[in-house]
Amino acid sequence: MNSSHRRPFTNPRARHGFLGRSCSIVSVGAYVPDKILTNADLERMVDTSDEWIITRTGIRERHVAAPNETTSDLAAKAALRALENGGVRPDEVDLIIVATVTPDMPFPSTACLVQQKIGATRAAAFDIEAACSGFIYALEIGQQFIQSRTYDTVLVVGAEKLTTLVDWSDRNTCVLFGDGAGAAVLQSRADSHGLLATYMGADGSKGSVLCVPAGGSAIPASAASVQQRQHFIRMDGKETFKNAVQSMHAAATEVLRQCGLDIKQIKCVIPHQANRRIIDAVGERLGATPDQVYVNLDRFGNTSAASVAIALAEAVERGRIQRGDLILLMVFGAGFTWAAAVVEW
Ligand code: UT7
User: Fold this and answer.
1) Best mutation site among 172, 331, 338 for ligand 1, i.e. most ligand atoms within 8 A of its Cβ?
2) Which of 26, 13, 21 is nearest to 150 (CA)?
3) What are the C-alpha distances in Å from 162 to residues 107, 181, 183, 245?
4) Residue 1 pLDDT > 50
5) Which of 99, 119, 260, 276 is deepest in the core (most CB within 10 A)?
């Protein structure tokens, strides 16, 4: 599978007559805060049970950032680990893209705060918001800058302090989410095709199914918005569940088709970590075996834009992914948004 003259896939970019230069994920890194909130802790906070949470979601515990720990703090720690793992200095980074729905503040961007915290003095920096799909959206954007030769080194980070948006009195949502960050360094490598195919989708008609209603221009913060708990996550779980399964399956099928790949050729599938039942349903529809699919939501819960980034970093660190392996990433989130990518590692 490593041999460059007998690759088992089609490079869709070549088929479309545009090859540019390739874009590889040269290194990854992740960081989660120390404090762990278990299902037993939640049993003491709302009317729930460890048994309900495990059977309905697969989550056992999640990490929660300290009150003075911000999204940019989590992002900076993950970014420094990714840079160190790749042997890349912060001052070599040309561009930082942070995907998040929990920026430190409306502006400046979290990416600018990360730039300062890691000392990436040469880097341009901006945030993107595609909710739980943000990391793959950001990978695709970063890839464009590398392929077009605009930049040589792009740092992509998915980071969330989601627990700031959690209504700790709502058992429907408070058991689901956690905090953390994952980062990837993108460069072109001569020995790898890197990101082979990406697909991004969105359906704005479903915006209200999963949202935080207030805090923006529609409902600015006010005493009433706080009293009505409009600054917290609201979700129709069943509608989100159904769309997550359908959309991740469709996106994954599309990127596999573009590469002429069968799921059996994929070494590791890394899905968005929202619900074990969603992961199992998509894996089954794709024909993936359980040992192909990487799952860590039992320990982290749903960390939105950080979810796939943390799982990828962990899978690499644990040796589940080796150079030359083909991997499949797939995500789904608010918007609705969804995306998938095939990567030659
Ligand atoms: O990252 C973005 C993507 N997000 C997702 O993909 C999340 C998608 N949705 C889900 O994961 C699931 O829909 C949930 C885990 C959120 C809910 O699971 P469900 O099987 O759809 O449960 P439900 O909402 O239909 O609730 C079933 C019952 C209800 O009780 P009644 O009305 O049947 O008496 C809920 O009130 O479970 C109850 N319930 C709980 N019980 C104990 C809901 N949350 C809890 C809880 N503990 N934490």
Assistant:
1) 172
2) 21
3) 18, 11, 17, 22
4) no
5) 99
Is there a catalytic annotation at residue 268? no
Q: Is the peptide bond before 9 cis (omega within 30 degrees of 0)?
A: no
Q: Where do the DSSP E strands lie in the chain?
A: 24-31, 36-38, 61-63, 95-99, 124-128, 154-161, 179-187, 195-202, 210-211, 234-235, 268-271, 326-333, 337-344
Q: 195-344 adopts what CATH topology?
A: Peroxisomal Thiolase; Chain A, domain 1 (3.40.47)
Kindly report the CATH class assigned to 12-187: alpha beta
Tokens at 221, concatenated: 């913060």
Residue 17: pLDDT band (50, 70, 90) is low
287: three-class secondary structure by DSSP:
coil
Res. 193 pLDDT band, cuts 50 70 90: confident
132 lines ligand 1 (CB under 6 A): yes
Domain residue ranges of the chain, discontinuous segments joined by +: 12-187, 195-344
The residue nearest atom 47 of ligand 1, judged by CA position, is 48
**Catalytic one of 112, 132, 174, 268:** 132
